[in-house]
User: What shape does this take?
Amino acid sequence: MYTYKIEQAIRAAAILHEDQLRQGSLPIPYISHLMAVALIIRDYTTDEDTLTAAFLHDTLEDTNYTYDELKEDFGGNVADIVQALTEPKTSGGEKLAWIDRKRLYTKQLKHAPEAALIIAAADKSHNFRTTVEEYYEAPDRYIQDFGSHLDLRIEAYQNVANVINSRLKSDIVHEFNHTFEEYKKFLAHVQKSLEKQ
Assistant: This one.
């Protein structure tokens, strides 16, 4: 599935996220995550707007791109999908505490369109995979980069998992559940490392 609209989304994402890197020890450009999410989604849908939104799903949250600009460039459907995936901020535009952001994000997912749920499942699946790969042999570095509140991470992602499993009919749910189980095993591994210290 390759269209003019998807090409424009790839270009927009590359420019908007050009100075951003993935969290971790290697300087991996952020767009690698967006490409991976789109590739995961491609196994489950050929809907152009869903794939377009996959490339743009972090633009409202992590760049200066606005909802109105997104709507003008890619249409109201894509803009609404991305908005549903955007973590809320304070009235002054500041980021909320991590757990508060995740709780509000989960509330949004309860009313989000199916396309947003598909992207959320792929987004989390990729994050789970890369986190386990990056940090399994370095649990101390994981604590350094993400903090030691492992119970809050399990709570937050379990809430997301509950929404995805109750609302989404796509087979991507199985991939999401598999990667989430691997992530939970990884956090248990990190917890054991903490207890030995």
Q: What stands out?
A: The two ends are 50 Å apart (CA to CA). The mean pLDDT is 95.
